[in-house]
Amino acid sequence: MNITFIGGGNMAAAIIGGLLQQGNSPETLAVAEINTDRRTQLQHQFGINISATVADSSVNSDIYVLAVKPQQLRVVVTENATLLHNKLVISIAAGIRATDLSAWLDNQSYIIRAMPNTPCLIGKGVTGLYALPGVNASQKKQATDILGAVGSVIWCDDEIQLDAVTAMSGSGPAYVFYLLEAMQQAGTELGLSAETARQLSLETFIGASLLAADSHESFSTLRTRVTSPGGTTEQAILSLEQDNVKHALIDAIKAAHRRSQEIGHILSQS
Ligand SMILES: NC(=O)C1=CN([C@@H]2O[C@H](COP(=O)(O)OP(=O)(O)OC[C@H]3O[C@@H](n4cnc5c(N)ncnc54)[C@H](OP(=O)(O)O)[C@@H]3O)[C@@H](O)[C@H]2O)C=CC1
Ligand SMILES: O=C(O)[C@@H]1CCC=N1
Fold this sequence. Notes:
alpha/beta, Rossmann fold, globular, binds (2S)-3,4-dihydro-2H-pyrrole-2-carboxylic acid
């Protein structure tokens, strides 16, 4: 299965890196990337087929992954509409509605909207997927195979859920890095070296996440186990509660959700 990525930025690179790591052959992957420096970088990094435009690509693909910024998507697809007709088109753009994308392609392509995340780069991504009616089971399987090669996949029945997936797991790695930054800073302020604070933060996240993944218990039960009455964690949780940190995080995810919907709305009309 030959796959062409249109746009070779951060997210395309994460998926391509993951696909190559999973043993996909470089000859089966192509990128059309407008930026010259980025093309050179991708060529060195991956050794796959790179061109400036889709039309210049030497690879015949049945599957196109749209990985440009949401604001760039409409122009890119309308310019390449003929090439994309009758093809499976997987858009990873935040907010852009599958129905709009389909209309920009004269309703002559098979559309899947996907929301992956950057841990795809190491095969640990998670992707939400939604297919427009008309996409057949074998095309859904192809999408599952591509995104499944770089992590786990979750199919959604209703496109509206993709905005929630975007706010949760699409943007989610940034929330984790933000918390890691805070933990590392606390460590250094308490006298640890930056390197030790980095390792302690990271290992704690990895260990706690694996523990939660391995457990059938709720996150709050697992948290209670760490929180000895009268102990240290209790003071930390009390401080977090006093500062409304949980609500701040929930609000942040809702802000991302609103922005995903807003991008879809604005670009639907442009
Ligand atoms: N980053 C993330 O964690 C995630 C991103 N996404 C989605 O993935 C998409 C890409 O995001 P990301 O990789 O971060 O963005 P980037 O800006 O890193 O990548 C987009 C790339 O496409 C290039 N490009 C622009 N126009 C064209 C064109 N006409 N033909 C070919 N290439 C073009 C851009 O060049 P130039 O910069 O010169 O314009 C840029 O190199 C977005 O729609 C985003 O919503 C989805 C999930 C997670
Ligand atoms: O911030 C963004 O818009 C993109 C989509 C999800 C993660 N990054």
